[in-house]
Design a protein that fits this description.
This protein is of the alpha/beta class. The chain is about 35% helix and about 15% strand. The protein is built from eleven helices and twelve strands. The strands form four sheets. Strands 8-7-9-10-12 form a five-stranded parallel β-sheet. A three-stranded parallel β-sheet has the order 2-3-5, with no helix packed on it. Helix 3 crosses helix 11. It is elongated.
């Protein structure tokens, strides 16, 4: 599940689909026969390490009834949002094929009225019904190996993306001409020409000391690779979280926290331009946080334990 890409590249969708097709060709009974043995043989130290993440993703503590329209997950290449289906089916196929599961695919910004597997959920409020899972990870779980030291990067803040959301529009309206920023809308459908800027690859953005992360329909898809790099992440406090557990990120420890109206952006840029040691400390904290997601065996175990808890609390699975 670790997705380290070469500098300047996103995850390969060809390899992603090839991997899942290969898994589909493996008989499901093989995966189910391994599940109980795998869960029984988790050593106490590993379980103690992983259980807090399991309980963070799946915050349910009491038994619950599934909605009538919940059904066993069936995968087909013809379904919509097949990336979501593939990422969930990779692990549900390890359980009894008659087990029912509720899920909501896509950019979720509200907590479901019943326990359901989702990619993202609101950080604030009671979000127990939103069971986080690593969905559409080919797009969202991208990390980089950045060889360029912080000191050798350009002394500016960079951002590229679409600006159809109000928070992004507010940002560009205020800073698209600022001398400390190279920011702009890279989408052809942009109706405000002065916001338009040429597309920049991940590799090109890594030439800058400061990279902005802005939430879109839910989370910001660039946050993971920024925090894995040797550039400094700037962003307002996140409102939504995913498998990356954005709700546990500490402002001004893992990233430079900005006001929601971006009024302190120039002040923060100037501070870290003149205090590189403070910038390097935050970058080191961010990189340390990111490495917590780089053990593929642990990621798989956490995913299985999240589903196992869901199936047990819904009364479908009896023994651990």
């Amino acid at each position: 599940m670790k997705s380290i890409v070469n500098v300047g590249q996103k995850n390969s969708r060809l390899l992603y689909y090839a991997k899942h097709v290969a898994q589909l060709l493996t008989p499901a009974p093989y995966h189910r026969s391994r599940l109980d043995r795998l869960l029984r043989t988790i050593d106490p130290e590993t379980r103690a390490t992983l259980q807090p993440r399991v309980d963070y993703y799946n915050r349910l503590t009491e038994s619950f009834a599934l909605p009538p329209d919940a059904h066993p997950l069936r995968f087909s290449l013809r379904v919509k949002r097949r990336n979501y289906h593939m990422d969930l089916f990779e692990f549900t196929r390890c359980f009894d094929p008659t087990f029912r599961i509720a899920y909501q695919f896509g950019d979720i910004t509200e907590t479901p009225p019943y326990p359901a597997v989702v990619k993202a959920r609101p950080i604030a409020g009671d979000n127990r019904n939103a069971v986080l899972f690593n969905l559409n990870k080919v797009r969202h779980f991208v990390f980089v190996d950045d060889p360029v030291p912080f000191e050798q990067k350009r002394d500016l803040l960079v951002w590229r993306g679409n600006a159809f959301q109000e928070n992004r529009k507010r940002f560009l309206a205020r800073y698209h001409r600022h001398p400390l920023c190279d920011v702009g809308h890279a989408h052809k459908r942009e109706r405000i020409p002065e916001w338009q800027k040429p597309y920049l690859s991940i590799r090109q953005q890594l030439d800058y000391k400061f990279i902005l992360s802005l939430e879109g329909n839910d989370v910001a898809s660039n946050l993971k690779w920024i925090m894995a790099s040797q550039s400094l992440c700037f962003m307002p406090r996140p409102r939504y979280e995913t498998w990356f557990m954005e709700g546990t990120l500490v402002p001004d420890h893992h990233y430079v926290a900005l006001a929601d109206d971006f009024s302190d952006l120039e002040e923060k840029i100037n501070y870290y331009r003149t205090h590189p040691e403070a910038a390097r400390a935050i970058i080191a904290n961010a990189q340390s946080y990111v490495t917590g997601f780089w053990n593929p065996e642990h990621e798989a175990l956490v995913a299985l334990l999240v589903l196992n808890k869901y199936f047990m609390l819904s009364g479908q699975r009896i023994e651990n």
